[in-house]
């Protein structure tokens, strides 16, 4: 009896326990303004992905070209990659700087040898370059303003960035680095849920640019909206995939008055979105279950200085919309 009671108490405590706080990755530089985290392992293990997407992903990876490349790299993304953390900063696409850290299980020698072989036949897209004592892989994506540099730091870590020196700095710090993020961004990251499928967080105070000219949102004054956005201090988004999907977007405002003001506008925006939903359902009958759930669960609330938008979608509705339902 005592053991059953103890087990029950432990299970209840686990269910009621708060979400585990995310960690500040020590390899992200101090310049970072926003952080994105993707829990690859949790996503692949989620009931929703297993039911509706994993089969297609496996089929794609078994294709001749994909399989040859993965075999050459000695990499199985479905088993070897656990999570990805990225930090970014800059004013626009051409000025964007990025550092990303991939955690999992890797074969450094095999990955580097594969990159060397690829560079011999595809040198315009991939090359081996040096930065100080480090040899890096340089990859130049099509239609992108900046190349990506990467290196396998060890059997558990791949580091990449838009600048060679950023990768070299992270490699030098690997194993003994201390968190470098600015205090306000680090505090925001620590509020995020490490067990979520994906989250993004950033300090946006003074960084929101003007709305594009000619923006016309029914029922919303663009000049008023611009002034409200200028009072936003932080932004965070959390996506959770289990058997279902939930999305939460939190916008931290300058003060409670700003939150009340902006919260009213957000409510109007959601109302406008819901007005157009029946048109989508009319054109795409399969989407009606999803439309109905969006209409029911898309909500906003104001609490202290925060304005939060939330949405939940069930596996059943997603299945019917994608043609994968029972």
Question: Which regions have little confidence, pLDDT < 50, spanning 5+ residues?
Answer: 1-17
Whole-number total of structural domains: 2
| Fraction of residues in helix | 40-55%
Report on the biggest sheet. 12 strands, antiparallel
Shape: globular
* Beta strand %: 25-35%
Secondary-structure content class: alpha+beta
Number of DSSP helices?
13
What's the rounded overall pLDDT mean? 87
How many angstroms does the end-to-end distance come to? Answer: 42 Å
Order of helices and strands: HEHHHHHEEHEEEEHHEHEEHHEEH
Q: For the CA atoms, what is the radius of gyration?
A: 23 Å
Spatial order of strands in the largest sheet: 4-5-6-7-3-2-1-8-9-10-12-11
The tally of beta strands, per DSSP, is 12
């Amino acid at each position: 009896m005592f053991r059953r009671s103890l087990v029950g108490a432990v299970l209840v405590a686990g269910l009621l326990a708060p979400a585990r706080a995310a960690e500040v990755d020590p390899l992200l530089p101090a310049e970072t303004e926003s952080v994105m985290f993707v829990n690859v392992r949790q996503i692949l293990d989620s009931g929703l992905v297993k039911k509706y997407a994993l089969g297609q992903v496996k089929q794609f990876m078994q294709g001749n070209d994909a399989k040859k490349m993965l075999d050459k790299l000695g990499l199985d993304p479905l088993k070897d990659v656990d999570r990805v953390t990225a930090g970014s900063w800059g004013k626009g696409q051409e000025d964007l700087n990025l550092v990303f850290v991939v955690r999992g299980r890797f074969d450094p020698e095999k990955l580097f040898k594969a990159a060397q072989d690829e560079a011999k036949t595809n040198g315009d897209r991939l090359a081996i370059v040096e930065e100080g004592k480090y040899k890096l892989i340089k990859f130049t994506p099509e239609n992108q303003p900046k190349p990506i540099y990467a290196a396998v730091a060890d059997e558990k870590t791949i580091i990449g960035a838009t600048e060679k020196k950023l990768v070299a700095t992270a490699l030098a710090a690997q194993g003994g680095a201390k968190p470098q993020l600015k205090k306000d961004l680090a505090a925001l990251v620590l509020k995020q849920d490490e067990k979520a499928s994906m989250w993004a967080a950033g300090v946006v105070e003074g960084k929101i640019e003007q709305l594009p000219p000619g923006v016309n949102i029914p029922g919303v004054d663009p000049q008023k909206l611009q002034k409200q956005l200028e009072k936003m201090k932080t932004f965070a988004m959390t996506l959770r995939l289990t058997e279902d999907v939930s999305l939460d977007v939190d916008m931290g405002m300058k003060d409670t008055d700003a939150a009340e003001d902006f919260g009213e506008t957000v409510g109007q925006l959601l109302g406008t979105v819901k007005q157009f939903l029946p048109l989508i359902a009319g054109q795409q009958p399969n989407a009606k279950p999803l439309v109905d759930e969006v209409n029911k669960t898309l909500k906003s609330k104001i609490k202290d200085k925060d304005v939060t938008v939330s949405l939940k979608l069930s596996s059943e509705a997603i299945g019917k919309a994608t043609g994968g339902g029972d």
